[in-house]
């Protein structure tokens, strides 16, 4: 019975590809992991404990949230009944809240008693974690014990973990990089050469940094591994969902079909129009994000490339 088991060191909430990848990475690093999944699925890892009970996940001191942003509040509300001040809660959601531009850590504060929070970011992808390919991840938290716990849980020969104390900045950077990665895939497929692509990335990062400053984040976080580094990696990661989606849109594939080709949920799709409106309201120059919003609405490839470099 579960009450006689040793408490797991890491609890992961989210049985999708990203949650299972994080669970696999923690298992590979030597952690005892329990995974919460609503899905009735066959477990390929006999050493991984899978449960449908939030109380079981909360037996771990470090709890990692890996669910889509639209369901995050509901999941946290249910999980919050089992959490306390002793828990360290970290999320790996590369998006912002479904109701506005609140961060997922904002939702954790609102829906649970946990206060020592963090977020995961950086260039690492689910496939790299599953296959154990070398990569890097960033943990953002104002609490050194959260950074230390995540590093202990995930760092190993194939995964390097870096820390930053700019939690909000890392959350925004991860979300904005997801948006810009669609632009990278789009521009590559539309015929942009290395020089044009470099200009797009540099301009997009500058705009993202201005947006982050307007949102109360540290601009420099966008220029680190969780921002610039993550976006640069998207050039080489042809299977990154955002890049796949961007390439499909440049081939004039309808959005719904392009979403299916990406295979994993792309948090940036509902986020881009909201970011464009935020930029307009705050009078932040963000032509790239306006162009991305038009791309999702079916804009033509060459016209959109021109738009990205307008202004």
UniProtKB/TrEMBL annotation:
InterPro entries: 6-PGluconate_DH-like_C_sf, 6PGD_dom2, G3P_DH_NAD-dep_C, G3P_DH_NAD-dep_N, NAD(P)-bd_dom_sf. GO terms for cellular component: cytosol. Pfam families: NAD_Gly3P_dh_C, NAD_Gly3P_dh_N. Keywords: Oxidoreductase. GO terms for molecular function: NAD binding; oxidoreductase activity, acting on the CH-OH group of donors, NAD or NADP as acceptor. Residues 48-142 form the Glycerol-3-phosphate dehydrogenase NAD-dependent N-terminal domain. Residues 166-301 form the Glycerol-3-phosphate dehydrogenase NAD-dependent C-terminal domain. GO terms for biological process: carbohydrate metabolic process; glycerol-3-phosphate catabolic process. This is Glycerol-3-phosphate dehydrogenase.
